[in-house]
């Protein structure tokens, strides 16, 4: 599992602080409390990898994780990028505007960005924020993959029903570049499937 080598690299609060463009990166988006940190930790098989994204002051930054190179391997240019979950209500208006502009610029200009993972609570999918992020990806022809997480809270039948409903809605809004799966950071359901999608985008 190459994701086990993921490690915190840097946090960027403006375009100038991003690592050089030109590699391969996958961005993770999700509303606050959707389960994004838990999903990242499960995918990377690390207990507290994404905790850094939650430290005060980092909640409005892009948090980059790189991969520790294997012995005799050149330092890589593959990254996972944790986008701020929006706690809009808690954020001052000028910071919201800055964040919007930053994310907008990141999505429209970042060449290294190869795919978007949107983490949504399976019981509350496709809220405004999720649609906005999926819209950014679709506008650029970037593939997006939705993780319907906290699936352990539902039975199998309800999971499948939710997945088909979200799949239908995503395809009708955003076309063929979107996919969706059931996930649980708690039970680890769907973790391998998610790794497969992300590894493909990163060229692992
Ligand atoms: P984030 O704000 O999106 O990073 O969300 P967190 O990963 O911190 O999770 C928010 C809350 O949901 C925490 O209390 C987690 O324990 C819980 N949670 C996250 N993923 C799951 C899951 O797959 N199943 C269940 N039952 N709870 C989860």
UniProtKB/TrEMBL annotation:
SUPFAM superfamilies: P-loop containing nucleoside triphosphate hydrolases (SSF52540). InterPro entries: G_ENGB_dom, GTP-bd, GTP-bd_ribosome_bio_YsxC, P-loop_NTPase. Its cofactor is Mg(2+). Keywords: Cell cycle, Cell division, GTP-binding, Magnesium, Metal-binding, Nucleotide-binding, Septation. Residues 22-204 form the EngB-type G domain. It holds the Pfam family MMR_HSR1. Necessary for normal cell division and for the maintenance of normal septation. Belongs to the TRAFAC class TrmE-Era-EngA-EngB-Septin-like GTPase superfamily. EngB GTPase family. This is Probable GTP-binding protein EngB. It comes from Cognatilysobacter xinjiangensis. The gene is engB.
């Amino acid at each position: 599992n190459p994701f086990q080598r993921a490690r915190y690299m840097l946090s960027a609060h403006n375009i100038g602080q991003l690592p050089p463009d030109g590699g391969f990166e996958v961005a993770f988006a999700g509303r606050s409390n959707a389960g994004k940190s838990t999903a990242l930790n499960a995918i990377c098989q690390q207990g507290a990898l994404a905790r850094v994204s939650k430290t005060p002051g980092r909640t409005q930054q892009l948090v980059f994780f790189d991969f520790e190179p294997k012995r005799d391997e050149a330092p890589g240019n593959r990254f996972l990028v944790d986008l701020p979950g929006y706690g809009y209500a808690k954020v001052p208006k000028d910071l919201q505007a800055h964040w919007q502009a930053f994310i907008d610029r990141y999505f429209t200009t970042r060449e290294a960005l190869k795919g978007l993972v949107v983490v949504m609570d399976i019981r509350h999918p496709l809220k405004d924020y999720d649609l906005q992020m999926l819209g950014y990806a679709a506008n650029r022809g970037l593939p997006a993959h939705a993780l319907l997480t906290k699936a352990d809270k539902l039975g199998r039948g309800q999971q499948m029903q939710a997945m088909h409903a979200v799949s239908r809605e995503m395809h009708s809004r955003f076309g063929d570049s979107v996919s969706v799966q059931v996930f649980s950071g708690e039970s680890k359901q769907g973790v391998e499937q998610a790794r497969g999608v992300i590894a493909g985008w990163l060229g692992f």
